[in-house]
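Every protein is a chain of amino acids, and every chain bends into a shape of its own. Below is the pair of lines this work produces for a single protein:
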Amino acid sequence: MKKISLFAVCFVFLLQSVAFAETKIAVFDTKVVMMKSAYGKEVSEKLNAKFNARGVQLKKEREDLEKLKMQIDSNAFEGKTLQDKVTELRRRGRDWNEDFSVYQKAIQAEQNELGKPVLAKLEKIVLDYCTTHGYSIAFDKHTPGLAFIADGLDITDALVKELDKAKKAGK
């Protein structure tokens, strides 16, 4: 019985030392890491190269719609012509909204596809960085439930550097 009691007391003391160990907490911003890192910039350049021309075209179409709307509002047309122009504006507006929605979904899908390998690398880098620097917990700033973040906990810039190191090393 004495051995069991001694074992229980030792076990309690061991648990207390673990419970009072220093806990280091870090936060980072995945979006900022993606924007600032070489990998993220590469993804952004690929997206711009693929979608920039269509974006310019959609912007021009939107400007043309605005001009037509201004003409209609300024009473530049009368009677049947006015009705035809209003119908044209509505039709072209619907078409533009559909095209723009498809454009945004295509960009989002491509961004997700190009970003998957980078996010996988970032996940490994966060794990390695936190292990190396003794962090117990790391949160993404956009995680729901974070109400306060003290200065000095944000490791976003350090993660950008680590991700850039990994890119240079060819990992």
